[in-house]
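cron nightly-structures :: item 1 of 1
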Amino acid sequence: MKVSVIIPFHDNVGWLAEAIDSVLEQDYDSFEVIIVDDGSSEDLSPLERHYKERPCIFIHRHRNGGPSAARNTGIAHASGQYIAFLDSDDVWLPGKLSAQIPFMEENGYLWSHTGFFYWDYRNDRLSVRHTDISSNHDDVSLKSFTGFKVGIMTVVIARKVFDNHPEIRFDESLRICEDSDLFRQIAQHYPLGLINQPFVKIRLTGTNARLQFFKRFIAGEDNYRRTENRQGVYASIPRHSMICRIYAYYHYSYRLLKTIAHPNLRELLSKALFVPIYIVERIYLLRFR
């Protein structure tokens, strides 16, 4: 089964080369690498010359539209029966595809994910802290709306998911948490497979969304708005449910936080406001274990 590996790229070509090499070093022999240059300011011609002997690598360029637009471009150009995603600053570990594709084929899953390491690349230190994904499998249609830990760079999705549901795509209006929005769409139709073993190293660069607490409230505000408007899959969330209450907390906290002009002070308060809702989400998610 052929796998199309989509890598959106926007600057830092050195890290991109590491990401590509981690795919080329897989012991799975049927794949293509689709690099989508999302309006990068860097010259990719040296990289193209370096990989010119590898016909499985394709580069598509378009103006900067964010990761959602780049990944949708990759999906449109993919020719594989499976589609996988890798961010240009992360790397796969050996054996990822040779474990994940047979697992999906044998168990009938149309999408699946694996565990991952957080990678402090400056001292080459790996950590699995805060990455308990053991309950993130099978029916996650309700759980996917909050506290859902699935890394986009670990996910493989069967092409037929996108063919059967043309409406399932990355929302190009989102610049953060666009992957969570996609997962919610898929989860309403298909059970999720899990290989609870780390097969990806996520590079900690200081810009990761998980390290910026105010971004969590921006995403929560978007979820609140979509739920209030009964938009798409968000219409399936029962009104007055715990999920709606969690989104409301993010909404009112966001209204407060956006009035703070100083970014460091805003981030500090965001961190403080995140603590209680994090505890509430963890308690709520116990029902799914």
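cron nightly-structures :: done
The chain has nine helices and nine strands.
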